């Protein structure tokens, strides 16, 4: 009897399934598009028919090498040195991926963004949108307008191909304590500038301006003669920062030292802390600037004679700092000696351009590599200004 009941129940289930599937009507219209994903892997949703295994199967990913690129990124300064805690509304637009994407969606209008909980450092999705586009094209190819913080000097337009993506952040910040801005024409002994903040500088990421040979403070009585080869080099004009910083790695270098998505030019050889830096300069050779004999970025050149570019720039930076320190412009711990309660007053006002140039070159970080000639002339003119009576 139990077997008969069980069999009858099975027949009933089969008939019911057939009835339901047989009565299924035509598919209805699609529903409205859902909101974009908020997770780190789905910032903007997914393209139709995207096939995950194209990129995420190591055995077949020979097109994008996602695993290798991700490892390279993991040792980059974007991953571990990008000051992720700068998650406030004025900073997150460059220091976090979420803030960067908000700026991008809004057309880069202003730096103010909404801070998010648990932000991520600038990662793959800051520069690319692989899930929505189904490729790794760069988000941004348009030229970048760079704000000038020298009175009377127009904003610059940076247009270096793929480098335009990088200079969305490697530039002056729109919300800056550069108030008041220094004026090269205010040269009278009674012209005084009052600086009320120890952060009186354009920002740390001024690599775009240095490459262009713009953005520094140019004294009216000094003859500035231009820029180094990098500024107008055809390869750099086309590929920008990636020309040198993302050179393809050789088979014997591995994938975590320099080049590629590490974006590094130098590294410390494994297990050799305190030893001399190693250099990866394949990108510099590919850009058409240097031959295969280049072994370091501290090389003599047309602007430096027999002295290495970085050696000479460092020497001038130290000289300039010493002149400013003697004037009391810096505290004992090397901070700018200025605050709202005790402001720093400089006269003539144009002399403050030496302070501006010091920060411009110190914070730019390449110490002459990006534009030796321009950096050197900014320093020479600043030293000459402070040596005046």
- Count of helices? 16
The outline comes out as globular
What series of H and E elements makes up the topology? HHHHHHHHEEHEHHHEEHHEHH
Outline the biggest β-sheet. 2 strands, antiparallel
Q: Assess the beta-strand content as a share of residues.
A: under 5%
Average pLDDT number = 85
Q: Which regions have little confidence, pLDDT < 50, spanning 5+ residues?
A: 1-8, 10-23, 36-41
Distance between the termini: 117 Å
**Helix coverage percent of residues?**
25-40%
Number of strands: 6
Task: Report the C-alpha radius of gyration, rounded.
Answer: 28 Å
- Order of strands in the sheet with the most strands? 1-2
Which class best fits the helix and strand makeup? mainly alpha
Count of spatially separate domains: 3
In summary, what is this structure?
With 389 residues, this protein is mainly α.
Describe what this molecule looks like in 3D:
There is one protein chain. This protein is mainly α. The protein folds into 3 domains: 53-133, no CATH class; 144-229 and 299-386, no CATH class; 237-286, no CATH class. It has 16 helices and 6 strands. The protein has helices spanning 2-22, 53-56, 66-74, 77-80, 92-95, 97-105, 124-127, 130-133, 163-166, 207-212, 234-239, 242-245, 282-286, 309-326, 352-364, 372-386, and strands at 144-146, 156-158, 193-195, 266-267, 278-279, 344-346. The strands form 3 sheets. The chain has a two-stranded antiparallel ribbon with strand order 1-2. It is globular and about 85 Å long.
